[in-house]
Amino acid sequence: MKLVKQYSTTTTGCKRLVTSCLVLLALSSIPRPVQSQGVTVASVISVVQLGREIIGSIIETWDLMEDVGDIHLPFKRSKDERILRKMLELSQQIAESEHQILNTAEMTVEVILKQFSIESRLENNLQELADLMNRISHRERVMRSYVESDEKIEQLTLESFARSTIAQDVNSVPELLSRIDLLVSGSRDLPFKKPGILELLQYATDEAKSTICSFGLSAQQVLYQLYNAISITELKGYSMMQFSWMLLKAYGKGNFTAEAKLMRRRFEDRTNRTQMLLQRVMQQASREYWRCDPERSQQKEGETFLQFTRLLQGYVENEVDMNTDNTCKENCAYYNWGVKQEQCYKDMYCSKQPKCAGKIYSCDYMDSDMWICPAATSSSRRYEYIEYENGLTLGQKKHCSRGTTKVDSWWRWLFWHCSYCFCLCDDAGPRSDRYINMRQSVSDVMNNKVVTGLRFVKKNRIVHLIVQQGTLLPRGQIDNTTLEWLEADSYNMLSPNVRNGRDYHTLSYDNRILDLDDLEVLPSYVLTGVRFRLLGSHLNLEIRMTEMDFATGKLVDPDKSIWIGSDKTEHSTDQRTEIKLDRPHVPLLTPSKSIPDSVSNQFIRFRESDRGMDASQTTVPFLDAQPVAPTKPVPLAGAGLFHKGRPKFGGFVTPKVLTYDFGPHVQPPIEQVIAEERQSRG
């Protein structure tokens, strides 16, 4: 872009001042492409910091103009050059920071309207807000066309543009900003008191906790992004008005000093009001982020979900095979607690199915005779369905590709009935994936990397909870170029020096409990790792936290990171409670998406699916394997596990993350910024 033409000490000097003012404003409106390389330390900037620098530069530019005194053309060369240099610095500053702050924020209103089911009042307000912001952007695009034109723009055109910017009508920038302020802050005057957009959105996100996962951001991030969009628009409009007055003053059309000061005060009041409102709603807004269920047709094992297999599985066995006496003198209910298949009597049905090589639990008598449809040999299931002669069917009856097998109980010596029982098999064999990694997954704190996401993966039949890491930058930003998912450790149960209870945990009938907790780091700390431990018979999540200097983006004493977890048990004063699954069906078959139904300080037992619906062939709940990482990477302030599901379905154990709380960093107020700027210049 052609920024400035050859300088001269004639009336071109005035034109150059006008052109540079327009260049400054035009650059502040140029859409910057999102950089795939991510942000760098040099480009990291907050809205507050950007506002501080813009306001300081504007004040300094006015001061330089006041030093000139009455405007007489041509300008004195030294004064003119100082003004132009300051304005050029400001334009470059905006150009460097805009893609980081504005582009993410500009998408916010559109995303909210598209993805969020909201009540009509909020929707109408958001639509109006988007329209007002677009009109300010349109005015900036007009300026951009002026400064990019190869043709000479007449002074009358530039003067007309400046006048229309500050005019007292519905299309002027002051009026547009006033309407934005009313939408954002709401009305506090009785009897027309009503909440603004930030409050309405906070209420809406709180009411819609089960759908906020569709944003890709936590509720607090959504509010903060919307605030960024509003603040950038305010800064653009404020700059546009201030430099319009400078343009008119440079043309000798008036002094405008009083008008500029009055508008500055209004801008301060609006900004302070918005900041205080934002702080209040951000304190109430949830910082949790987790993943919604994908569409049912998009569920894919290994990508969107994982499952443990053959942990406790429905199993048909005759009572004669479950004792060493080779008798049938008991009934099915007798074989209830950890018996074994001792034999295969006369090679009956026991010889036609995979043996339960572990322990057998919870046997029940259903009926004497049945037809069994075996599952495919490649399946983790044993049966597709079982149909009893009395009409009872376990599982979903459908075409049986391997053909059904007739299985009949029998009488022995007239008074002993050798019954086939329906039991649960706990067999840690080669077809049973029931292992959870207990090794830590941690970010490289020595290279200033922090955790930015979590996900479950399965490797070598072992489930791992792994982290995504990224390099921490000043003011809570993340260098997107460094984002990476850490690989799960590549070991198996037979690897040298690998031990059950230390490197991994084996689920079984007696050890299948997972604690569900929300864990939060201390203030000024960030999340840098996760791992599982055993707390009695419970598998329990721990997180690692490391202290952070927010301003510099440096981890403090990374070698002194701290592991924390919840030590609460069922026997604690604040007792841990169980979330029980009632006759759960396979979670993939739920007709509607899962919603959270657990709270922190609970636990869940992995169990078999419902006998009637699935013949108890599936281990539930499943694990949600989707990456849990906000679309705008931020440092995390905590992590947890919870259960989501629907009644009568097994649901999913899902990781959640807690995004860093940016609320305390919304300050300082604008009047403090201005005072500091003036004091710094003496």
Structural class: alpha+beta
How far is it from the N-terminal to the C-terminal residue, by CA?
36 Å
The total beta strand count reads: 31
Q: What proportion of the residues is helical, as a percent range?
A: 25-40%
Main beta sheet: strand number and arrangement? 8 strands, mixed
- Poorly predicted regions are 1-43, 70-81
Note the beta-strand portion. 15-25%
Radius of gyration: 34 Å
Question: In total, how many domains does the architecture comprise?
Answer: 3
Shape summary: elongated
If you average the pLDDT, what whole number results? 83
How do the helices and strands line up, and which of them pair or pack?
Layout: H1 12-27, H2 47-68, H3 77-115, H4 120-148, H5 155-166, H6 173-185, H7 197-207, H8 219-250, H9 257-284, E1 288-289, E2 305-306, E3 313-318, E4 359-365, E5 369-374, E6 383-388, E7 393-395, E8 405-408, E9 410-412, E10 416-418, E11 420-426, E12 435-437, E13 441-442, E14 449-459, E15 462-473, E16 477-485, E17 504-506, E18 513-516, E19 518-520, E20 525-535, E21 538-549, E22 554-556, E23 562-565, E24 577-578, E25 595-596, E26 602-605, E27 607-608, H10 611-614, E28 619-620, E29 622-624, E30 636-645, E31 652-659, H11 670-680
Parallel strand pairs: 12-15, 18-21, 24-26, 29-31
Antiparallel strand pairs: 1-31, 2-29, 3-11, 4-11, 5-6, 5-8, 6-7, 9-10, 12-17, 13-20, 14-15, 15-16, 18-26, 19-30, 20-21, 21-22, 21-23, 25-30, 27-28, 30-31
Helix pairs in contact: 1-3, 1-4, 1-8, 2-3, 2-8, 2-11, 3-8, 4-6, 4-8, 5-8, 6-8, 6-9, 7-8, 8-9
